[in-house]
Design goal:
Blueprint lengths: L3 E8 L2 E7 L9 E9 L4 H6 L30 E8 L11 E4 L6 E4 L5 E2 L6 H4 L2 H14 L6 E5 L3 H10 L6 E5 L3 H9 L4 E3 L4 H8 L6 E6 L4 H10 E9 L16 H4 L2 E4 L15 H15 L5 E6 L3 H10 L6 E5 L1
Parallel strand pairs: 8-9, 8-11, 9-10, 11-12, 12-13, 14-15
Antiparallel strand pairs: 1-2, 3-4, 3-6, 3-15, 4-5, 5-7
């Protein structure tokens, strides 16, 4: 039996693809052979750059990622593959199924079948690899509660920002404005439905000139991962508006001016993260329903159109180096196996 390969974060900006023995499933597990996995330009770069607080689990809802951050570690949560073996207590019908898994980057891995998402035949591997990102964007849209005729701004047009823009463009908004520092991402944003697109240096006055009405938004999203953008997002949000913060800044410090207009503005600032549902949704929704909606959205959104680079898993170090050093060139990066 051939060996397996896995990606390991060994230290700050140090990634290696290791060869390990082929895993064998326990009685209640299946083994998945990975075809493709998607890199997260947000959280995975924080791990790569050693910007994760040491006392915070990477993801308390995913097995193996629920411990405080420390090197060395395996990380990732977007793998697509085929079940090739099952344990003695698992139905043989799982063999040959194509599945999505919230699992770190590896050529083969063993998990409980209950943790897998079976994939419909019409969804491609590359679209399916972006299921977690589409679910994240879905959660942002739900938490923002966009309403008819509202003015909405999205700061940050990385892959999750672009997919959030694509979802928001389906709402009957009066205006959808996006902000990003990279030309290529701004062009993609326009193609996904943004009405007005700005560079990150636009400033509060430039944004207000472009917005209709009183020149402020009803709903603003900060998805750039840049703490400085949060101040701009707050400044452009109108009184009694909503500001949804989907960025995880890790250990980056955040400075906000809350002593001026904000004090009497009634602005709601809300954190939004895919591992939980906001209380107002839990009467009718759970994470399974949200994931099912994201899965159904893959064919409509075609998120693989955002893929800019593909690297063999053996070259994973080059993939992370690209995201770290040349973010203007890369949107979504995939590992192939």
């Amino acid at each position: 039996m051939t060996d397996a390969r896995r990606v390991r974060f060994l230290g700050p900006r140090t990634v290696a693809t290791e060869t390990v023995p082929m895993p064998l499933p326990d009685d209640d597990e299946v083994r998945v052979e990975t075809r493709v996995s998607a890199l997260s330009p947000g959280t995975e770069l924080l791990v790569y750059r050693d910007c994760v607080p040491g006392d915070v689990p990477l993801d308390a809802t995913i097995d193996g990622l629920d411990e405080p951050f420390s090197y060395p570690l395996s990380y990732g949560y977007a793998a697509v593959g085929v079940v090739t073996a099952v344990g003695d207590a698992v139905d043989e019908s799982w063999v040959g199924r194509r599945v999505f898994a919230f699992h770190p980057h590896a050529s083969h891995f063993c998990v409980s079948p209950e943790s897998l998402v079976p994939l419909p035949a019409e969804v491609s591997d590359e679209d399916a690899a972006m299921l977690a990102t589409v679910e994240t964007a879905t959660g942002f849209a739900m938490d923002g509660r966009p309403g008819i005729g509202e003015r909405v701004a999205v700061f940050g047009q990385g892959v999750v920002g672009l997919l959030t823009t694509a979802l928001l463009s389906q709402f009957p908004l009066s205006q959808l404005v996006t902000v990003d520092c990279h030309d290529a991402r701004r062009e993609r944003s326009r193609s996904l439905g943004a009405d007005v697109v700005f560079g990150a240096d636009v400033g509060e006055d430039g944004l207000m000139d472009a917005l209709s009405g009183d020149g402020r938004t009803d709903l603003t999203y900060e998805l750039s991962g840049n703490p400085a953008a949060l101040s701009d997002a707050l400044a452009v949000t109108g009184d009694d508006g909503r500001l949804v913060v989907g960025s995880w800044y890790g250990e980056k410090p955040v400075a906000l001016d809350l002593g001026g207009r904000f004090h009497r503005s009634g602005i709601e600032i809300r954190s939004s993260q895919v591992s939980r549902l906001a209380p107002e949704h839990t009467g009718r929704w759970d994470k399974s329903r949200r994931l099912d909606y994201a899965l159904d959205s893959l064919s409509r959104l075609s998120p693989s159109s955002l893929v800019t680079h593909r690297f063999p898993v053996e070259d994973a170090a080059d993939a992370y180096r690209l995201l770290d050093r040349r973010p203007e060139d890369a949107v979504q990066v995939l590992l192939t196996y």
